[in-house]
Design goal:
Blueprint (H helix, E strand, L loop, with lengths): L1 E2 L2 E2 L5 E3 L4 E3 L4 E3 L4 E3 L4 E3 L4 E3 L4 H22 L4 H19 L4 H16 L12 H6 L13 H7 L2 H7 L23 H7 L4
Antiparallel strand pairs: 1-2, 3-4, 5-6, 7-8
Length: about 200
């Protein structure tokens, strides 16, 4: 059964357009004419796909765009309000996606999967969302950062999902360089968690 680019049971997926096998969370971009690891979307503004290799750069670009827009709004007045709102919504959307360990494509596939599951009388769970607590605290077991921050900030800042996108060094988060965790070929899923639990 296929859910959000994940074939339950670990079977390989095949791209009909590339005539190649593709890893979980990879999708074929019809503009770039290739499969992109952990593809989020094809961005017309940067004329490139946003995926595993460059999602951090895109996210930091949006953060800087919102910051610059707010600064310009303060300096020049109300002329930039619609642009600030649009960019703020885009930033909020990508923060939501990071916290739920989803891509834009997986979100939209999940909406359809949720509708089909409800129609069939079952429940749909996004396979890469490990639950709010696990998403927010997974990396706390592996690294200790910023002793001077209160625990509430530490949990948010060291969220696994943010570390997966922005990298393990919090000092380089705002640096628009590509640093990401993993190869983009394998991602932890809720199915892995179920298989590893002692009750199964």
């Amino acid at each position: 059964m296929l859910f959000c680019g994940f074939l339950q049971g670990g079977d390989l997926r095949y791209c009909q357009k590339c005539s190649l096998y593709k890893p979980p969370r990879a999708h074929h971009c019809r503009v770039c004419k290739r499969c992109v690891l952990r593809m989020d979307h094809h961005c017309i503004w940067i004329n490139n796909c946003v995926g595993h290799a460059n999602y951090k750069v895109f996210f930091v670009f949006v953060v800087y765009a919102v910051t610059a827009c707010i600064y310009s709004l303060v300096i020049s007045g109300l002329l930039l309000v619609p642009l600030c709102i649009a960019l703020g919504v885009l930033l909020g959307w990508h923060i939501y996606l990071i916290l739920h360990n989803k891509t834009t494509i997986e979100y939209h596939e999940g909406v359809r999967a949720m509708w089909l599951a409800e129609k069939g009388g079952s429940v749909y769970n996004h396979p890469y969302d490990l639950g709010a607590y696990e998403n927010l605290t997974m990396e706390l077991r592996m690294i200790v950062l910023f002793v001077f921050l209160p625990p509430s900030c530490l949990k948010w800042l060291t969220s696994f999902c943010f570390l997966q996108v922005l990298g393990p060094n919090i000092l380089s988060w705002l640096c628009p360089t590509t640093t990401h965790i993993g190869s983009g070929l394998r991602f932890r899923t809720s199915y892995d968690e179920l298989a590893a639990s002692p009750d199964s």
